[in-house]
Specification:
carotenoid biosynthesis; FAD/NAD(P)-binding domain; alpha/beta; seven-stranded mixed beta sheet; binds flavin-adenine dinucleotide; Guanine Nucleotide Dissociation Inhibitor, domain 1; 19 strands; 15 helices; globular; five-stranded parallel beta sheet; about 20% strand
Length: about 500
Amino acid sequence: MKKKIAVIGSGFSGLSAAAYLAKAGNDVHVFEKHDHPGGRARQFTTEQGYVFDMGPSWYWMPDIIEGFFADFGYKTADFFEMISLNPQFEMIFSNEKIDVPESLGELKIVFEQIEKGAASQLEKFMQSAKFKYEVGMQDFVNKPCHNWAEFISLKIAKSALKLDLFTNFRTYVARYFKSDKLRTLMEFPVIFLGASTKNIPALYSLMNYGGYALGTHYPLGGFYQLVLAMKKIAEKQGASFHFNKTVERINTQTDKVKSLTIDSKNYEFDVVVASSDYHHTETLLDREYRNYDETYWEKKTFAPSSLIFYLGVNETIPNLKHHTLFFENDLDEHIDCIYKEKKWPEKPLFYACCPSKTDKNVAPLGKENLFLLMPLAIGINDEEVVREKYLTEMLSRIEKHTGMRDLQSTIEYKKSYCVSDFMSDYNAYGGNAYGLANTLGQTAVLKPKISNKKLKNLFYTGQLTVPGPGVPPSIISGKIIANEINKIKN
Ligand SMILES: Cc1cc2nc3c(=O)[nH]c(=O)nc-3n(C[C@H](O)[C@H](O)[C@H](O)COP(=O)(O)OP(=O)(O)OC[C@H]3O[C@@H](n4cnc5c(N)ncnc54)[C@H](O)[C@@H]3O)c2cc1C
């Protein structure tokens, strides 16, 4: 029988859950506090004509995203045009820069130039990464993770050793490469998972395959095109979207959610899926119904927050690629500031995205759209004067790299975004940008659970639960939750 289902939030997980739930014939209503969809992947346009994606910019694991579209009889190409970036990105060190080319064959040549024998090591690394990607994506990632029994299968048992679950990523990479630069290059994809590579299992070398081997892509018009396409698909299945609607309270009756309070009125639902940040969702419930208390969250390793600048530059910036990683300083020093010392880094690393190098839709002619991102500890003070200090530092390093003079004077649009904005815009615990880190102790069954333990009809999806942070995992998370709900008998 058709269920009336509320989805809280319209980020990737909410969009995905809504589409699958509506496809199964349910009456689905998405409530979003902002005036448009996308959550952390929202987009805004300035008066001058700059179009900024607010969050994700690395379109990796295209096969997973394509899988979502295929489930509804579409291809991404039905909605937007995709460009494969070449080079995928550039990494700047203090005395050298490395371009990561589009093809793995060319990347091997780059590796061999830096370290003798590194081409064949990369080949071996990638073979193992491909295996992990295939096992991970087919057998692990779609599990609801209620308990470990879900992982007991002959195939998984046979693969267990080859998955390198119990080796940390840092040690694993060091087995393959001697050069510090190559090691940093290979560690970079895993930094997306939100923890030091010393604490991430080597299983996640699957990310190197999902990135370097499958390529770095870009949807023309920006990452937001993916949001719009997913919303369209959800609507075609019958889902309804309600914007500027903040869910204020989740109301219960005995062992069930009865209604949601929105604009001070109560609306009844058979099932509720919360794609809002997990901790925030639980604050909408009376304490006795929460899965986890404050101590639980305090002990968790959160992925970082970020300092972001959206800059409209009224000149062309020479010698800058679409994606550039400014890694001139020590990676571990910055990582320690995020996780151990929880303070602003003295010698930061940062990332610059200049999508106008690929896409004329995102900046006026002859101008550049520049997005700068510096990962930061959650919960730290982010007053304007500190943000500006780091902007000056980042701009001077871009000037040094590009040879451009006085970049500051060419900025005709500027907006900063940091810890407190993540808190107020997304109700994000500590102002986290990327959810909960994928450390071994926070993987699979050890992640916050997808169902409420006391309320039969309340479910959680998104980057704070399984499978974890990132666009493809959030899309998968929505599918997992929809499968669980579609299994419920009336
Ligand atoms: C700066 C940045 C860069 C990133 N870069 C990449 C990248 O390059 N590649 C990649 O794969 N991933 C990237 N990520 C991660 C990726 O964007 C996220 O993992 C993903 O978008 C999370 O989706 P979600 O649905 O879990 O959460 P969200 O996108 O946060 O969606 C939750 C939604 O719930 C809404 N909401 C919250 N509370 C309420 C309430 N009470 N009532 C109603 N609505 C509510 C919010 O407004 C939001 O729209 C990046 C993230 C950030 C922040």
